Each structure stands twice: as C-alpha cells, then as structure tokens.
Amino acid sequence: MIVSMSDERVERILDAAYACFAKHGLRRTTMDDIAVAAGMSRPAVYQYVRNKDDAFRRLADRMFTTALTAARDAAATPGAPATRLTAICTVKLELTLKIWADSPHAAELLATNTRLAADAAFTGAMHDLLTEVLTTAADAGELDLSPVGGDAGETAELLLALTRGLEADPTRPDLPHRRLRDGIALLTAGLTPR
C-alpha angle with apex 30: 27 to 35, nearest 5 degrees? Predict the structure, then answer.
C-alpha cells in the first residue's frame, strides 16, 4: 500500500493528539499543543483536522478500527470457543486499559468516547462478532446455548457487559485479564454440551 504524504501527516497529527489528550485531557488540550507535538504549524494542522474535537473523533475512529481488525483476527484464529471469545473480549479490554495506563485523564477521555458514534458502531460490531463465534460454536456442537434461551446475541451481550465491568477498575492491570479469562471459562463451561 502506498501511503501519501497527507496520510503520513494525518497519522502524525493523530499520534500527537493522543499524546496531548493523554497528558492534558480533552478539555485542556489546545490545537497549539497538538501542532507543537506534531512538529507542525497550527495552520498546517488545520489543513488536516478542523479542530481538537475533530482530531479526537478521528483518533477514536482509528483506535476502534484497529481494535476491530484485531478482534476479527482473534475470531478467525482456530481454537476452542472460550479461547476465541476471550481473545475478542481482550481486544476491547486492552483498548480501555491502555488509555487508563497512558493518562491521568482517562476518565474524561473514556466518558467522551461514549458520545462518539464510532464507539456505538465498534460496540455493535464487537457484539456481532461475538454472536457469530457463539453461533458457529453452537452449530458445530461445541456449545449448547439452550441454558441462555438459545440466544447467541444475548450471550454476546453478557460477554460485553462482563468486559465493560472489568474496564472500570484499572488499579491492577493483571486482574481484569485474569477475571475476563475466568469469567468466559465459567460461562462457556456452563454451555458445554453434556
């Protein structure tokens, strides 16, 4: 793939925006901050993003797109349903834990994410992906969804709720990963055909 100079500059601006949002928070970051971090003039930055909200939206879009690609790769990896489901949910968990690790302003940045259309689209796509893996596993006889009413979509929602709950406590980064793995293992054990 050939990357144009404008694509390289947009990537540089978005990288700079992430660094600034992580350091200062969304409200306190200015376009001057982003321009300095990108090594560009403010007028040059304005050629690629309209304002800091546009930079934040585009940065979130990039992060969600990257995470969704990783989740799709995890879904396509051969393995037991619990392994694939854990790998998919880990992608979502990692996205949030990275922000908690990178920024003292994570609560502000994550609260802002909930207003983004890209966040809703990402969550919907993750739900669809989990539903697909659950349905495929049920069709192959690897899982029996009858204990949850045979509803793969509802089971996917449970997995997303588990992941969202674990995203809320970043105090011990190892703990959410272990709890996610254990929670999915318990759920899938309950759905294993007897």
Answer: 145
167 is written with which tokens? 């995203």
Tokens 């304002």: give the residue: 51
Residue 5 confidence class, pLDDT cut points 50, 70, 90: low
How far is the first Cα of the chain from the last one, in angstroms, to the nearest whole number? 49
Gap between the Cα atoms of 2 and 9, Å rounded: 14
- pTM above the 0.85 mark? yes
- For the stretch 34-61, pLDDT in tens is 999 999 999 999 999 999 999 999 999 9
Over the Cα atoms of the chain, what is R_g? Answer: 19
Task: Sort 95 into a burial class: Cβ within 10 Å, 0-12 / 13-18 / 19+.
Answer: buried
